[in-house]
Amino acid sequence: MARIIRIKNNLDNQAQSSYFASPVNAGGTSLYVRNINGFSENYAVQIGATGEETAEIQLISGTPSGTTINLAGTLKFSHSVDTPVYAIKYDTIKVYRNTSGTTTPATDLGSVSITPDSIYTQYTDATGNSDYWYRVSFYNAVLNQETELSAWIQGSGFSFTSRAKLRQRVQSKLYDAGYIKDDDTINDWINEWLETMNNQAVATREDFSLGSTTVTFGDDGLGTINDADYIDVRRAWFTTDGNSYYEGSRIESNEFMPTDLFVNTDPKFYYHSDNVLAKLPVESGTASILYYKRQPILDNDDDELPLVMRPYSNSFVNYALGQAYMLDQKTELAVNFLTLANNDLERFKLNITPRGKTGPKFIQFTDSTSAEDYDYPFFY
Question: Domain extents for the chain?
Answer without folding.
Answer: 1-157, 168-202+296-352, 211-293
